Amino acid sequence: MRFFEVFVSTVGLLVSLPLFLILIPIIRCNSRGPAFFHQQRVGCKKRTFVCHKLRTMAQGTPQSGTHEVSADAVTGIGRILRKTKLDELPQLWNVLKGEMSLVGPRPCLLSQVDLIREREDRGVFGVRPGITGLGQVRGIDMSDPIRLADCDAEYVANRSFAFDLRLIWLTISGAGMGDRVNDAGAVGKCSHRDENTKK
pTM of the entire structure? Predict the structure, then answer.
């Protein structure tokens, strides 16, 4: 599986390079700030790593769980990137480095202590987090830590190369809603650093 992930992430990054060259100036013109977003996440064995994404939110957005952030924070191009999941492409670099897998539990923030505890209780941190996974395909986000941790544990118990390929296909074909923002407009208080300070 690791050979497959290295091959896919390498090819994916090479193929994505022209797309990055197009998207970077569009993102920067659409809203002030860098095009890339870098954020500390919790990985395998609870080791922290820096997760890379294309920026989809405005400068000054708090670094909280996506479900805690106002929908107004998402930029115009950001909505397109999130809907098409193109904002996840830089995470192929995390896969190539061995910090993430193509498929696995969604990497959470250090501040999401409830989800970390639930995942730890279920042995979820025994595998690398993924760009996509069973939770994403089922539309379960981090606003429901117990349900998400249960889903993650189900994936860990049933993971296989064939299962991963199926989840990848379902993701590519549009399954799941991705990380949803808070339509009510509330902004979480998990962190006082804004989304763009670490891009």
Answer: 0.84
